[in-house]
Amino acid sequence: MMSVLIDTVAWVRVENGRILCARPRGKDVFYIPGGKREGRETDLETLLREVEEELTVAILPATVSHMGTYEAQAHGHPDGVVVRMSCYAGEYRGTLAASSEIEEMAWFSYADRPLVPPVDQLLFDDLRASGALA
User: Is Hydrolase a UniProt keyword of this protein (predicted)?
Assistant: First the structure.
């Protein structure tokens, strides 16, 4: 069986022991904000575009740092479809707001881990282990 890889980039924003998550319209789970690269975009270009599209803020490129890369079975896809999520932290300017493609956003603690897909749960585990996530 051939496996399929979905390559994504995510913005990890933790404040007061909680991580910012967003639920796209028509989806039943929350995700770490971000998405798939378009064409030959770099991780940084994808991150800047996706976060602005979803949450209407501008990530400050000079503050971006890689936090880790995770892979897991893709939520809602057939077995063998794997999502790779390259995670970055970074400061932003603007006011966080859900765009038209986002149904709602929320600040999650570790107790909310079941509400996110498997790849995001790996990030939750690491953030909990490091003491960043309450």
Answer: yes
Cβ–Cβ < 8 Å for 58, 49: no
Domain that holds residue 60: 4-130
* 3-state class percentages of the chain: helix first, strand second, coil last, to nearest 5: 25, 35, 35
Quick: pLDDT tens for 8-48. 999 999 999 999 999 999 999 999 999 999 999 999 999 99
**Positive or negative: CA dihedral 7, 121, 68, 44:** positive
Number of folded domains that form the chain = 1
For position 126, which CATH number holds?
3.90.79.10
Q: Give the Cα separation of 104 and 65 in Å (integer).
A: 26
